[in-house]
Each structure stands twice: as structure tokens, then as C-alpha cells.
Amino acid sequence: MALLSQQLQRFFLTTLNCTSNVKATKKNNSVALKERARCCSAIAIDAPSFSGVAGIRWGLCRLQGPREEMEDEAVVRSDGLDGFSFAAVFDGHAGFSSVKFLRDELYKDCVAALQGGLLLNGKNFNIIREALEKAFESADAKLLNWLETTGEDAESGSTATVMLIGDDMVFISHVGDSCVVLSRSGKAEELTNPHRPYGSNKSSLEEIRRIREAGGWIVNGRICGDIAVSRAFGDMRFKTKKNEMLEKGLEKGRWSQKFVSRVQFTGDLVVASPDVFQVALGSDAEFLLLASDGLWDYINSSEAVTFVRNELRQHGDVQVACEALARAALDRRTQDNVSIIIADLGRTDWQSLPLQQQNLFLELVQAVATIGIVTLGIWMSSQFSL
């Protein structure tokens, strides 16, 4: 379904009376949103200015959907990586503690493993991939130890997708179901695949096979009937506490003693091993868009790229475009939290580009449907009040 035009969005947008408290912190050229907002409100900060890569303009936004807790985080940093910028989105579950730990620790481990950016500038992909794999493994081991020691949200976990952006290259290290999309002359290129234990694509089939070979099972698209993402940090019950997880399930009647006796774990069911990619940024590369699955489950990559390009064509403000995209996910009735980072690479004269045309017929159909739903709701409310 095509996104509504700006005029139709403004006409049909229902104002939500929600409140949020925003606290943006800036330290060492880093930006991380610290607030825990309530209700369905868009949360954003002013677009920061970084010295890491000349010409990049940033937009960063977090939005809390209908969920009770905001467990996402988005971070951008430009210090410590010798001319490369670090951008990451974390999507937590079962508590915020894993995200809180990772938002600082994963960056530190990446900087150390990459020797302060020296390896990135060397551009030896095999060495860079090994370094990022080491960084992710180190961060996960520290997190598991911290969760067990503190007992704080002990069953929590988090995905993490990291972009390391240079002048002509981006390196991506990816765990979970967030996604990075590159706009190349207006065409959307999806640079990552979601790590999920369901689906028929190659990535999902590989995840399903790995889980089963490790002794796990999948029920309704969830590992052991529990979690719907197959790679993540934390989640100790699927790593160091698998047998305890079995015992708890037996006590709660989730499975029988006979079933438990047949289970033999040979590895971790959830892993933090990243997919690592290297993508060249030529003159046709316009912007990178990194977002959690709360966006992608409701707006596809082509729609998102068209939406952002039209926003930038109208006003050129990356932060405003980022916030507008988050609101579009809210308009689509996203059921998840949404975190978005946009890196405009500074190579496009947005004012000179023509607006990409929306499908007016689909917009009118969507508008008529919206009117019908609103009218029906008003009529039903009046009937109940009689």
C-alpha cells in the first residue's frame, strides 16, 4: 500500500494525546537517546553534527508504539575510529538491561578490535570481518556474565546492527532483525537479511537448520515456542542456561518428562555471531537507512526510500525526514517500537530532484477506506450510547 501524500496525511491524521519526556545526551561527539517515553509518541533530537565523515548529515529518531516499555536504542558516534562513523540500532526484548549494557560496551569492543579504525582504513575485508566477529563475541560474553552477576532483567536480550561509514565504504555488522537499506539513485538496496526462525528465504532456512542441529526446536515461528529472533545478544536461557530452561518448562507443564529426556543440546540456540558486509559508496549512493523491525514490518524498503527522498526534496532536513518516517510507521498501526537512523551522504542536490509520484489511485482508495472506518466507528459509538 502506497504511503499517503503529505496533504492527505495531514488531512486524515488523528492527533494522539500522548506525553513523552526527552533527554538527549551529547558526550565525546556521541548521541544516544536515554528517555523511556510512554504512549505512541515520536521521540527525536536535533540532528547532530559530527566530524567523523565530512558531508554526512544525520537523522535519528525513536518512537514507542503500543508496547508498555521502550526497549530500543539508537546510537551515533564519530570518535575513536579514525575517520569512520559508528551508527547502531539495538532492539531489546524481555527488558531494557541488555540494551543499556550494549549501547556503550559494543562500541568499545568494536573500537578495540578494529584498532581504533586502523583496520578499517586498511580495507582488508577478511581482517575486518574477523575483528567485528571478535568484538561481537566479546560483548556477548561480557553481557551474559553481567546479567548473571546482577540478576537485572536476567532473561533479556537484544539485537544489534552496526554501520561503520567511511568516505567511500560502509561496513555492516548485523545480528537480529533490524535492516540497513541503501538508496542508490532512488533504488532501494537491502543490505541485510533478518535472522528469524521462520520463513522460506535462504537466511531463514539456514537459521532453522542451525537451531535444529544444536538440539533446539521451533513452534509457531519461535525457538522452543518462546523467541522469534534467532540471533541476539544475551538471552542466556538459550545459551548458558539451556538445561535450566528445560527444567522450568517441565515445571510449568510446557512439555513432558519424556520429551525432555530426548532433548540433547549440542550448541547455543540463539547466537550473537554477526553477518558482516562491505558495500562501496559510489557517486550514486544517496543515503543509508538503518531501522528496527518495527518500521520494516509495516513499510517496505522501496516505500521508505521514496518517502525519505520526497521529504528531502521538499525541505532538505534529514532529522525532519527521519521523524516523518517514524510517524508514518505509527500511522500504519505498527505494533512495535521503532528506531531509525538516516545518514545522508551529502552527495545529492535534493532541491534539483523531481518529486517521485505516489500512486494517486491507491491514495484515494486508502483515503476512502479511512473515511469509511472513521464513519463506522462514529456510528457504532452512537449506537452504544443509546
TrEMBL record:
Main location: membrane
InterPro entries membership: PP2C, PP2C_BS, PPM-type-like_dom_sf, PPM-type_phosphatase-like_dom
Membrane topology per record: Single-pass membrane protein
Keyword RNA-binding: no
Subcellular location: Membrane
Cellular component, GO annotation: membrane
Cofactor: Mn(2+); Mg(2+)
Superkingdom per UniProt: Eukaryota
E.C. number(s) listed in UniProt: 3.1.3.16
Keyword Transmembrane helix in record: yes
UniProt xrefs under CDD domains: PP2Cc
Domain PPM-type phosphatase: 57-345
Gene3D superfamilies in the record: PPM-type phosphatase domain (3.60.40.10)
Record keywords, A-Z: Hydrolase, Magnesium, Manganese, Membrane, Metal-binding, Protein phosphatase, Transmembrane, Transmembrane helix
GO molecular function (one): metal ion binding
Sequence similarity: Belongs to the PP2C family.
Protein name: protein-serine/threonine phosphatase
Organism in which the protein naturally occurs: Vitis rotundifolia (Muscadine grape)
Taxonomic placement: Eukaryota, Viridiplantae, Streptophyta, Embryophyta, Tracheophyta
